[in-house]
């Protein structure tokens, strides 16, 4: 579950390329990042700003999005109960 939370945060922050789908992919991404320290430093320098500008940086917007998702899931479930 925590891996999916991290994937959500990365995706919302505009960094879906950092999401690994397997342990091997995670290691490959980590090694690639370690080979380009300047790029990694630039990313780190703008990460707070990037996340703050994402839905996770706006609790009210995030809450509304979660509420919409819950409503949609509820409607889907109710529709399957007929």
Please specify the SSE layout and strand pairing.
Blueprint: H1 2-12, H2 23-35, H3 37-52, H4 59-80
Provide a descriptive summary of the structure in words.
- This protein is 76% helix and 0% strand.
- With 82 residues, the protein is an all-alpha fold.
- The longest helix is centred in the last third of the chain and has 22 residues, at 59-80.
- It is flat, with a radius of gyration of 17 Å.
- The model has no long low-confidence stretch (mean pLDDT 90).
Q: In a few lines, what is going on in this structure?
A:
With 82 residues, this protein is mostly helical. The chain is 76% helix and 0% strand. It has helices at residues 2-12, 23-35, 37-52, 59-80.
The shape is flat
Q: What would the average pLDDT be, to the nearest integer?
A: 90
Poorly predicted parts: none
Number of strands: 0
Sheet/helix structural class: mainly alpha
Largest sheet: none
Roughly what percent helix? over 70%
User: Helix tally?
Assistant: 4
> Terminal Cα separation, in Å?
31 Å
Radius of gyration of CA atoms, rounded to a whole number? 17 Å
Order of helices and strands: HHHH
Strand content: under 5%
Which keywords apply here?
single chain; 82 residues; mainly alpha; 4 helices; 76% helix
